[in-house]
Amino acid sequence: MKLLEQSNQDFEQPQGSMPVVAADNISARYPLDKELALDSVTFTMFPGELVALIGPNGAGKSTLFKILSGVNRRYSGTLLIDGASLLSKQKANFIAYMPQEGDIDWDYPILVKEVVTLGLYGNIRQQKLGRLFGLADYSASHAALARKALQTVEMDSYANRDIKALSGGQKKRVFLARALAQDAHLLLLDEPLSGVDQRSEEVIMNVLTEMAKAGATVLMASHDIAGARRYANRVLLLNKTIIKMGPTESVITEPLIKQAFGRSLHFF
Ligand SMILES: Nc1ncnc2c1ncn2[C@@H]1O[C@H](COP(=O)(O)OP(=O)(O)O)[C@@H](O)[C@H]1O
Ligand SMILES: [Mg+2]
Fold it and tell me: Domain extents for the chain?
């Protein structure tokens, strides 16, 4: 079993670096379901990687994101984030999670700039404990950070709008601004490119690529296999179990895609 799992990971681990995600034998089942949503999923991710998570509908991609982000705690197996518990890393604001469009409750009235500053709370808590800044410093650096993050995703002119009033792509850019402001080291993005306009896609991918270059670890689910080929360093091909994880060109092959999706896809 172990051997089989290892052979699914076609990748030389960087020497001496601590995995940012070490998922060992993660399984999950929803209460009324007979089938597992995730079955013995084992993989590691390292700093600076941009990994595309690919699999058909119902493959367990969103379930995996919810587990990695701490939203879903009903799983078996072990999960270490940067060598520590998920909870401690959540408290340290290490992780940013962008849910799939349908998983967000947009009824709550909140301004764009507030969505971004929410991402700063963990950092502020740490600064308060660690460096004992004055309160005025927080609010000033707070607002400045939020503004800068919104500028980076080209959404600063929308700072005072209600988040509900934005398009899908714009909302996703705001989430990304929050992750930037938060200085998240692990970014979990559930279908960040689905239904977004061209410019949003460019902005999102530029920011994610830059963040990975700066040492962040990015896991993004994608329907767009051609896009994953362009952007990702590695691909995790999932259908309840890991079909294969490895360098993009060794995973996006016709037989493996057919195995995961149950049919051939057009672009080969
Ligand atoms: N909240 C839920 N309650 C019950 N079953 C769920 C729930 N969320 C997902 N599932 C089931 O778990 C499986 C994996 O779903 P999901 O993680 O959303 O896959 P994906 O994101 O790859 O489409 C599916 O069979 C789905 O029906
Ligand atoms: Mg999903």
Answer: 2-261
